[in-house]
Amino acid sequence: MSEKQHILNSIAALAKRLGHSPSLVEFVAHTGTCKHSVFRLFPKWNEAVRAAGLEPRRLYVRPKDEELLEDWGEAVQRKGGLPTRSAYRIEGRYYARTLEKRFGGWMSLPDAFRKFAKGKRKWGDVLGILRAGKRKDGATAKEKLHSAIPPKKVRHAQLQDRLTYGNPMDFRGLRHEPVNEQGVVFLFGMVARELGYLVEAIQRGFPDCEAKREIAPGRWQRVHIEFEFESRNFRDHGHPASGCDVIVCWRHNWDECPKHIEVVELSSIIKSLANAEG
Question: Least C-beta-crowded within 10 Å: which of 80, 205, 216, 249?
């Protein structure tokens, strides 16, 4: 059975259990299938519902603030650290954009969650993770890191016979942030297993990498990965969008990235992993 037919059968089976056509949120919650798997095969959720022989529900129920924050908190518990936007896009029940609009941006979620979870014992572990991301004096880990770096107005002449380095980060033996695509490849190799990827092969031509990842318990799928220092380099290099499933980059700066291509921004992921280890 193809993956597409499996999803259609799952939609029909869930509709029978619920007594109505399921919403995307209900489908993810009841079946454990990630949204990314659905949108790789169907541009819109309602198209998947119709393909399953059902009529989409017209009623949209706006999730409550506490429902959004609870789901974000559960994502923190599963990862043992703060989820990046791209990670939540795969694991979360709701759209990352919904949370951003509701709470004033992705970086505002920790503060919103602290207010929501104050005094609730259920979220003690999540609040501990959030506290670990700050120093005792209230400064963030990022501020601590850059406090030892000269202000931006201080610039020194570059010596032509020396290597250049990214900002210090000391992550698992990698002393500095990547400054090129090769650094991205090396860093991805360090965390690929934690991100759920099993690398099959890496090549010099496009796409750079072939890997597999688990899309449901006991079920894996092949994906094609392209490594870039910045996500918009994919466009600048003239790569065909049809030949890639995932862009792994250090910095995501391509707002017009095709929707079917997932972007894994390592700079955000490393922050979460570093906070969890600290």
Answer: 205
Question: What is the DSSP secondary structure assignment for residue 258, as one 8-state letter?
Answer: -
d(CA 114, CA 55): 40
What is the tally of structural domains in the chain? 3
What would the pLDDT profile of 89-101 be if each residue is shown by its tens digit? 777 888 788 888 8
- Decide if 27 contacts 10 (C-beta within 8 A): yes
71 lies in the same domain as 119: yes
Q: Which residues contact 203 (CB under 8 A, 6 or more apart)?
A: 209, 210
Residue 251 and residue 173 share a domain? yes
- Tell me: do 77 and 27 sit in the same domain: no
Q: Using DSSP bridges, classify how beta strands 262-265 and 246-251 pair: parallel, antiparallel or unpaired.
A: parallel
**What's the pTM value of the predicted model, to 2 decimals?**
0.47
